[in-house]
Amino acid sequence: MQVSGGDLQRLRQLNSLSSIRALRESRAPLTLTELSAQTGLSRASVGDVVTDLHQRGWITEVEPTPGTMGRPAKRYRFRADAGHVLGIDIGVHKVLAVVTDLTGRIVASGRVAVDRNTTRPERLEAVWRAVEAALVASGLAAADLWGVTAGSVGVVSREGVVTRVEALPDWPGVDLAGHLGERLSCPITIENDSKLAALAEQRLGVAAGVQDLVYLHVGRRPGAALILSGRLHHGFSGATGEVGLMDITGWRTMAVELEGCPVADGAPPEEAARLVFGAARAGDAVAQEAVDVYARRLALGTAAMVLTLDPELVILGGGFSRSADVLLPALQRALEPHCLRVPAIRPSTLGEECVALGGACLALDQVAERFFSSEGSLASPVAPQRLG
Amino acid sequence: MQVSGGDLQRLRQLNSLSSIRALRESRAPLTLTELSAQTGLSRASVGDVVTDLHQRGWITEVEPTPGTMGRPAKRYRFRADAGHVLGIDIGVHKVLAVVTDLTGRIVASGRVAVDRNTTRPERLEAVWRAVEAALVASGLAAADLWGVTAGSVGVVSREGVVTRVEALPDWPGVDLAGHLGERLSCPITIENDSKLAALAEQRLGVAAGVQDLVYLHVGRRPGAALILSGRLHHGFSGATGEVGLMDITGWRTMAVELEGCPVADGAPPEEAARLVFGAARAGDAVAQEAVDVYARRLALGTAAMVLTLDPELVILGGGFSRSADVLLPALQRALEPHCLRVPAIRPSTLGEECVALGGACLALDQVAERFFSSEGSLASPVAPQRLG
Description:
globular; homodimer; 11 helices; Nucleotidyltransferase, domain 5; 3 domains; Tscrpt_reg_IclR_N (chains A, B); transferase (chains A, B); Arc Repressor Mutant, subunit A; five-stranded mixed sheet; 19% strand; 388 residues; 15 strands; alpha/beta
């Protein structure tokens, strides 16, 4: 068989990729012998690859455990701090920016409070302040970032344009990618906030390893996002999980069940649900009935999605998930009459960093595509620039 | 860089895979120069690979076009007839078996009529007769088959067990894989019939190249199947597209709108719809109103799926799709009030061979996985045996 220069280069790249994959996925550092066993590559090939990856800065040698007898074998690990990405949550009530390493661990964050009355220019200014704060806290410069994903309320098209937002009248049409691109030179992606929360739970949270799930964003106006075959389902125009728009589900008006409950009498709408869930938790029958009615409405739209998709898991996320101890059993009961099989239901575990963390996860997917896929190139780890 | 024997073998395999992929995907036969350009491999590597693939029987040399001047370059094409698969549609009213080549072209088929009152043993016997007929017509023996997929009415679990069938009381629990395995030695898969119809349309029919679609099986009891990110969505327990089970959609009883229409007076239920669609087509206002009511019911469940998934396309399949000229515009109108964006709706084009053809497509996916994926092995083309 003839082996050309191009063949050799391709072979070397494939060997590097299988080695870096094994090192990234391993929790513990690996010796050359272990790496050879895991990749199926010869010990000699692994030696070549490791020297090369080490020189380029993708992996680091780990100090031998003190007290080890004899001459210990060298061990290597993937350098999680070789690069960093930024995830941003642009919500109604807060803007949160998190900087993570290449494993999705948060190393720094910045947060700015906003509200329903914050104008578009003010909200965009808040985005900068949150990003600046996260960068200052991380000790990194904007040019060090390898990727940015921002999550926004509303429907976000495949091109990253916010096309529909019920909560913020002046937000549709905002050019977030353009805005972020004024000061950030790395690749930028915009996505819907609930979709990013679903992704974060599937990568780092309660749904680790689950292939098909429905993420319920449960609050005054419920929404939903889908992970299918392990990937975020974007849909043709970005408008997935919108079953609540059908009047038949009652999702657009269902919060009145909680806000009209006598135990919430006089409280502002934002407070009402917490009071009702609290009273139900304490055994108040009227409050429990209001929760049950809310859960039955929630179950209608949820059942439509469950019967359509037959997911393994439903995640209860969003503000009301803090009362999952009360709401989850009520939802479970309300789903049973509708579903062939009620999937497992679990509350979100990532809390208020969920959306920003999901942004980091999506940016990391793109980093992996660029560097670690079979079409990728393991050049030295440097922050990628946008095209054009 | 050191190159080991294992490295060389891997390199040769990767070169073979990229060459066979290019040849499979090309409509026209390719010269070595063209193959080199399409794969990025050197001319010398391509020469090696083509000699090897030709010897093994995966490709064939094409005769030069008569009248070509000078000495024409040799041209090669993928041998679609190197292997064959079997797709079987086990329905309420028929059993249809089709034998296709490796591109999904039907080379022979066998059909046996059954009905609602056919017992389980009789239906299983009909399966054998249809399979035997298709094999006789194709001139192949059972041992020549590379893969078999049978589509059954009802919910089919990931393990291939039929778990729920409303139309055939004695069918749940039937061990189709075990039955087929008594006489067929190749890998066997069982799947729901509507899912296979959806796959066939996406591979060979009206939805070629569409990534996300909802396939509506429209008849006396509508059903649905999903293709998401270009792949059949099976769901956790196989029960996807079952939104019609919610009473709120009215899908379980909606055929009465057509059967109760005065223009169908006295006709058996199986005939009624055809009469009503025909009268509506001819301009009968009462029949058109019955169609509109039916379409509004159909739209409720369809909208729930469309709002959940935001698909590019909805396919109108099943028996009533023969009246798509009347039903499709009514469905389109009925969806508009519910949907943010009404997807394109197109009638199925593959007709009554759709399910069997989808079975062949799924069997071919498994053939491609075994031979042509990066984990595959291009050993000589021989019919694979089941494990165990």
